[in-house]
Amino acid sequence: MRPFQANNFVCFLVVGIVTFSMVSVAEATAITTYNQAPYCNVSQSSTLGVFNGAENAVDDDIYSLSSTLEEEHPWWQADLGGVFGINSIYLFNPLGITPVTLTFQDTATNSSYTKSLDPTETYSYAYTFYLPPAIYADLVTVELQQSGSLQLGTCEIDVYSAAPVPEPATILLFGTGLTGLVGSRIRRKKKAASV
Length: 195
Known about the structure:
It is a single chain. Strands 1, 2, 5, 6, 7, 8 and 11 form a 7-stranded antiparallel β-sheet that branches. Helix 1 packs antiparallel against helix 2 (168-194). Strand 6 (100-106) and strand 7 form a beta hairpin. This protein has 195 residues and is of the alpha+beta class. The chain starts with a helix and ends with a helix. It has 2 domains: 2-30 and 167-194; 33-162, Sandwich (Jelly Rolls), CATH 2.60.120.260. The protein is 28% helix and 37% strand.
């Protein structure tokens, strides 16, 4: 009876390791993104009127406008509430998108990355700026590049990051181990009862 129990344990162990490996590979290839902007605190350098607050840029309504007063280098900022790997930024403005500077800042490590973007070659009302290597940040700032008294207005700003992939492999491995422990416990009780 002893070798049989050892073989069961080895079998559970091998099945758990193989399953964990297969699911981990599947998880690594499944990259999804989701918009962080609706869940964060937003602000801007100033606000034009009562109905043009910074929150209008993240309300998923392309008809509401977030707008600053005319000023030198107006900005809009999103505090994500935690560090995320940012993959892309989506801007929508029916008046057209002007050259902007995107600043990504990680306040915990006091590091920042700035990217100047000029979408005027592909003049569009909506533009997605892709960031091939994910930039880790908890603050994202959009600022107008030109000097002079300018107004920053936008209808939608989305900040996309890699979604944390749930780990079913870990749960499956834990469940397999737990099943093995319960099975061996039941066998011990049956053996003790038969003796």
